[in-house]
Amino acid sequence: MAVLPQILRKYTPNARQAKSAVHILNCKTGAYGVNVSRCGQCGHIQIHKNSCRDRSCPMCQALSNELWVDAQNEHVLDIDYYHMVFTCPSELNALIYCNQEELYSLFFHAVSETIMELSKDPAYMGGTPGFISIMHTWGSNLSYHPHIHVLCTGGGLDADRNWHQKKGGFFLPGKAMAALFKGKFLSGLKALHEAGNLSYEWEAARYRNQYKYQELLDACYGKNWVTDIRESFAGAEMLDGELRET
Prior knowledge:
Helix 3 runs antiparallel to helix 8 and helix 5 crosses helix 6 (about 175-195). By secondary structure, the chain is an alpha+beta fold. The chain has 8 helices and 9 strands.
């Protein structure tokens, strides 16, 4: 956390971010007290420094994650599941960062609507799948990188509750999903901008200029967005492992 002073010189965190930073800095340092355990047989004493329990702390969420995974496994069926990852172009990161409530919500809705719309198309499946969406806001190098993981059933139910599943792979094509997701996200972004519901602060301040904002849209429309479909896995046991890894 030696880089925190450098970050504070460049950025001004909101109250929640500042509070989380203080919690993480003091996590397991003794600042939040300690628990002392003593062996009743040999007398050995062990001191455990308390954690901060902040939801943003990478050290404190293991138990919460385990409980969440166990709760999800109660709803898992013994069928094939597929793991998809939806990502926005990095050009949007600055704008998403300073409009997290609005654009995270848009992100989830665009992903959900994309999956549901294509799934109900008879050309692909003609039914309704089941899926869980999970957002990560950083990448493997801990840089800001919002993206959504989706665990989706390999088939779905039609209007008569009959099960449909494509043989030999996932029923939704990656390119079609990526194109539809791009259109839905950018359409929602434009609607929020035109309604005056977006903030343009920090690195996104340049998009207050309409020409710069239009350049951003043009760049995003011109890119091929990425929707990654991972290998399939079947049953609750394998799904449990996939959830833990993501």
